[in-house]
Design brief:
Blueprint lengths: L2 H14 L3 E6 L8 H6 L2 E8 L8 H12 L2 H4 L1 E9 L1 H10 L1
Parallel strand pairs: 2-3
Antiparallel strand pairs: 1-2
């Protein structure tokens, strides 16, 4: 895992104490894109399962993630796809698959 992805993992762990967390770095697939070259930021997909999301709307959940990542959202991350679940939502989703 590269240092940028390691830092994302650390910040999410500290802020949201997830029971499940997956982070996929897809930066290499976007290396030639103009915006990615200009920002120098990476492209990431995250699945985060945390009790901190309970009672929160999808927008509020994303705001919690953005807040946890702080300055990284301005410089190190060009694109971030977020799937944010409570533990019960995630277990229900797993049972349906």
């Amino acid at each position: 895992m590269n240092p940028r992805a390691e830092r994302i993992c650390q910040l999410i762990q500290e802020a949201l104490a997830p029971t499940h967390f997956e982070l996929f770095d897809h930066s290499a697939a976007h290396a030639g894109h103009y915006a990615a070259r200009e920002s120098g930021g990476g492209h990431f997909y995250a699945t985060i399962v945390s009790a901190a999301f309970a009672g929160k709307s999808p927008v509020q959940r994303h705001q919690l993630v953005y807040r946890a990542l702080g300055e990284m959202m301005q410089s190190d991350i060009h694109a971030l796809s977020i799937k944010a679940y409570t533990p019960s939502e995630y277990h229900t989703k797993e049972d349906q698959e």
